[in-house]
Amino acid sequence: MLATHADDVFASKTADGSKLLVYVPYNADIRLAGDFSSSHARAIDLAERTIVPLEARFDAEKGTTLLAQGTWFEDAVLVLDLA
Prior knowledge:
By secondary structure, this protein is mostly beta strands. The chain contains no helices and 8 strands. The protein starts with 9 loop residues before the first strand and ends with a strand.
């Protein structure tokens, strides 16, 4: 799932495959393997307890989807609705 690998970034799908969750301990661009551009993406800022919409941009040449940096400074969970 993760195209950019970092030891402290984790990703998982829900059991029914309807959501992809990515934990990020800091603000950074995240690349996912595959096309997730049609998913509804958002970040939950755990420190501020806010939800921020994210744009998922697919790069066909690389076969990856970019989730660009958001407004949070530390722990966040990125949520993508897949179904």
